[in-house]
Amino acid sequence: MTTIENDQKPVGHGRMLRKEDPRFVRGRGRYCDDVQLNGMLHLAILRSPVAHARIVSIDTTAAEAMPKVKAVVTGAALAEQGLAWMPTLSNDVQAVLATDKVRFQGQEVAFVVAEDRYAARDALELIDVEYDILEPVVDVRTALAPDAPVIRTDLEGKTNNHCFDWETGDQKATEDVFKRADVVVTEDIVYPRVHPAPMETCGAVADYDRIDGKLTLWSTTQAPHAHRTLYALVAGLPEHKIRVISPDIGGGFGNKVPIYPGYVCAIVASIVTGKPVKWMEDRSENLISTGFARDYIMRGEIAATREGKILAIRTNVLADHGAFNGTAAPVKYPAGFFGVFTGSYDLEAAYCSMTAVYTNKAPGGVAYACSFRITEAVYLVERIVDCLAYDLGMDPVELRLKNLLKPEQFPYTSKTGWVYDSGDYEPTLREAMRIAGYEELRREQALKRERGELMGIGVSFFTEAVGAGPRKDMDILGLGMADGCELRVHPTGKAVVRLSVQTQGQGHETTFAQIVAEEIGIPPADIDVVHGDTDNTPFGLGTYGSRSTPVSGAAAALVARKVRDKARIIASGMLEVSVADLDWVKGAFQVKGDPGKSVTIQDIAMRAHGAGDLPEGLEGGLEAQICYNPSNLTYPHGAYICVVDIDPGTAVVKVRRFVAVDDCGTRINPMIIEGQVHGGLTDGVGMALMEMIGFDEDGNCLGGSLMDYLIPTALEVPDWETGFTVTPSPHHPIGAKGVGESATVGSPPAVVNAVVDALKPFGIRHADMPLTPSRVWETMQGNHTPP
Ligand code: MCN
Ligand code: CUN
Question: Fewest Cβ atoms closer than 10 Å to its Cβ: which of 224, 230, 466, 473?
Fold first, then answer.
């Protein structure tokens, strides 16, 4: 039997290849759209062509008469069953199908169920909807004007478009610091609406069995257990009669956290027809109607001494939440974790006030590798710190080095109440400077500036808070943010570990096997990872906010330790010594001082299930289950340096180099971490330079196809240069922090800071994303306007 050799140490060592890849590269992945069931019908959704309108009438007769059409369902029909509205993850309600009004372009109005996808689509064209067009609310800045049309007339007594107010920090203390500061810098900073645009769009196959009353739902979800509970609560179906399967997912990036009307429609359709029903949206549907990200208009203010000691940060945010507040964030955190906007710096005070409004746009807000709005927070602080450097005439790296938190300050309680678990920031920034050759780059830049060439160097330093709960503070609609894990070791010493999180491409089948292998000494290849099936995995809140490693990864390590503890007792019986006389070495228990006497974990597994006595009082078998409730979030950090060249004739920005040094504590699989970072950096370059979901004044979505919503390809990004430092999390059993969103969080400010730095000769201190050639050109001409 194989045990683990030193050179195969499962966690952190070598570059273990991904166990799931042979399946994917050979086309054997099983995605939602691959699910084919006997007699399966197809569902297509009719969407509103306009942003704001009263529905006068819907005539479905022609569609119903079409051959192959089995059912046409409108909001009115759903309303009769009490299913026209559903709760959102933020305690708002959202229309499953519109009944009274449509509130954004692309909103679900009716659906058709037919024998094939084409017939369903064709029938949509025969549904006749009469709309009474209403004035749309498109500009978030005027959404609260007294004469603005009210979008949410469904909410009783609602007379305006106000969604919520939120504040954090100490307003008075911050004001006092601002009053006595030498320097105050203010800048208006916009983080435009963007879309995660995963390769696979959203979809579901619902199969309701009328005989046993069981609903099986394959769906593109990042959180199968949470979704199951919500279906039980909404539809009144008994929870044990619902099985949610999240098969292979072709990218989620937060887009697959919410429950979409399409999922509910598929369920209703299967219940109504008694047949399995598939719904798969197309690219445009995905872009115009599913969870967008960001859309924060921020005023940033920073107070400092003349020497560059940062004293306080203040911000006021206007948040566009679209037509329904469908944000996925812990209930107590309506602005996600935006509260970490104080960043990585030692401040005296901080304050944020925020107003969120409804507009006639698709709902969403938390998505796109955002760590619950930490993207926006990091962008704000890293941009405003650069503005301060500009005003002080200081090098942005020097300014950061002067203000970064010191290792002895950890655990550090921020001025907005976040307890950073651990951090050692300066070495991370120094490492990025070393890889980039920072001093040399500045020399090169100076020479180029003399020649009129536009070269920019941008720096960002970020701290994230990932791994939600703990559940006393964090829940989604009452479900506490903890995760279960179950480990079974089979008699022959092979194992299966069952997770409550759900991979969308992050490589959990590999990394969770590595975590368990490290703790229990069974090689990763002998450990199967099961996830994404509520009937076969323990309850837990799912994958988003980079919480899998911090929460579920901790659960996996602890459940393996629990099994190991039992194995130790069995070993003591097998070796006839007391448990205290056993050492755990490389997958085996050895008698202290007598290495010749040992039993491997595989021997123990066989004994646990086999003939012969076990120590007094011990049950047979070798398995355990736990539910892990984290004591705190983990706080990864990183330092990024971006180098850009701008063509002075065309204003095209070229990202020439990008150095990313990440610290996610103990590194489980360095290759997977690198992949996560590469992906996130690509996202960041995309948002900084080209991505935006815009709207015209009628509320028409201007980003409804990949011709209009630009995403970066290999041509737009450089060869990434990565590095790392390791500051373990003190409260995580193996010291690991999350990393899945770090690069998306940290890279946009580095790119924008680089572009603004390149434009310094034009006297430019700030420019808003996306920095497309036309926007950069206008900025160079002194005509910069926010998006
Ligand atoms: N990892 C590691 N060592 C660490 C931390 C993480 O080896 N110290 C590994 C993990 O074991 C895991 C991967 O890196 O295989 C990411 O781990 P983690 O940071 O825990 O993030 P999650 O697994 O919870 O993934 C969620 C995160 C989010 S929220 C978004 S959005 C995003 C992201 O992951 N969506 C992705 N990365 C993505 N990558 C792909 N391919 N597809 C997506 O949809
Ligand atoms: Cu914010 S996107 Mo990820 O948390 O699924």
Answer: 473
CB 364 within 8 A of CB 179: no
Q: Looking at residues 746-750, what average pLDDT do you find?
A: 98
Amino acid code (one letter) for 279: W
Whose tokens are 């078998």? That residue is 621
Q: Is the CB of 254 under 6 A from ligand 2?
A: yes
Ligand 1 centroid–CA 498 distance in Å is 17
Q: Where are the alpha helices (DSSP H) in 334-395?
A: 374-392
> Which two three-digit tokens encode residue 293?
């990200």
Distance CA 266, CA 219 (A): 10
Average pLDDT over residues 552-574: 98
Flag whether 439 is in a domain: yes
Q: What is d(CA 427, CA 447) in angstroms, rounded to the nearest whole number?
A: 29
Predicted pLDDT at 13: 56
Number of domains in the chain: 2
Distance between Cα 368 and ligand 2 center (Å): 6
CA distance 178 to 186: 11
Q: Which of 591, 613, 628 is the last residue of a domain?
A: 628
Task: Please write the tens of the pLDDT for every residue from 383-421.
Answer: 999 999 999 999 999 999 999 999 999 999 999 999 999
Distance between CA atoms of residues 282 and 121, nearest Å = 11
Please indicate, yes or no, whether residues 748 and 714 belong to a single structural domain of this protein.
Answer: yes
Instruction: Classify residue 568: in a domain, yes or no.
Output: yes
Identify the CA nearest to 563 among candidates 514, 502, 495: 495
Q: Is the CB of 566 under 6 A from ligand 1?
A: no
Residues 759 and 683 in one domain: yes
Dihedral angle over CA of 272, 277, 283, 289, nearest 10:
30
Residue at 267 is within a domain = no
Residue numbers of the domain that contains 445: 293-397+420-468+632-780
The backbone region for 248, taken as left when phi is positive above 0, alpha when psi lies in -120 to 50, beta otherwise, is beta
- Give the CATH number of the domain where residue 608 resides: 3.30.365.10
Assess contact for 464 and 637: CB atoms under 8 A.
Answer: yes
pLDDT band at residue 7 using 50, 70 and 90 as cut-offs: very low
Find the 695 Cα to ligand 2 centroid distance in Å. 24
What tokens were used for 220?
Answer: 């593109």
Regarding whether 641 and 623 lie in a shared domain, the answer is no
Is residue 2 very low, low, confident or very high in pLDDT (cuts 50, 70, 90)? very low
Is 388 a pocket residue for ligand 2 (Cβ < 6 Å)? no
Residue 4 pLDDT class (50, 70, 90 cuts): very low
Find the mean pLDDT for residues 476-482.
Answer: 95
Is the C-beta atom of 508 inside 6 A of ligand 1?
yes
CB 371 within 8 A of CB 293: no
To test the ligand 1 pocket, which listed residue (509, 676, 678, 724) has its Cβ within 8 A of the most ligand atoms?
676
Helix ranges, 192-323 (H): 224-235, 261-273, 283-289
- The reply to whether 458 and 566 lie within a common domain is no
Are 707 and 649 members of one domain?
Answer: yes
In whole angstroms, give the CA distance from residue 498 to residue 489. Answer: 12
Whether residue 487 is found in the same domain as residue 452: no
Q: How far is the CA of 584 from the centre of ligand 1 (A)?
A: 30
Residues 542 and 666 in one domain: no
Place of tokens 């924060």: 296
Residue 227 and residue 221 in contact, taking contact as beta carbons nearer than 8 Å: yes
User: Is residue 111 situated within a structural domain?
Assistant: no
Find out whether the beta carbon of 327 lies less than 6 Å from any atom of ligand 2.
no
Considering every ligand atom, which ligand is closest to the CA of 682? 1
Percent helix, percent strand, percent coil in the chain, to nearest 5: 30, 25, 45
pLDDT in tens, 127-176: 999 999 999 999 999 999 999 999 999 999 999 999 999 999 999 999 99
The verdict on the CB of residue 523 being under 6 Å from ligand 1 is no
Question: What is residue 125's three-state secondary structure?
Answer: coil
622 and 657 part of one domain: no
Last residue of a domain, one of 588, 605, 628: 628
